[in-house]
Design a protein that fits this description.
By secondary structure, this protein is mainly alpha-helical. It has one domain. Helices cover 88% and strands 0% of the residues. It is built from 2 helices and no strands.
């Protein structure tokens, strides 16, 4: 089970790093995560 969690974390990090190739892209990604968290708290 731990192995699957670590693998999922590494894959997620690889996709996130790939998506955040630029500073502007990283800012948008961080903003979208913040918005999703805010939505989850408010609902």
């Amino acid at each position: 089970m731990k192995r699957n969690a670590i693998l999922a974390l590494l894959l997620g990090a690889a996709f996130a790093l790939n998506a955040c190739a630029t500073v502007k892209g990283a800012g948008k990604d961080i903003q979208s995560v913040g918005q999703a968290g805010e939505d989850a708290i408010n609902h």
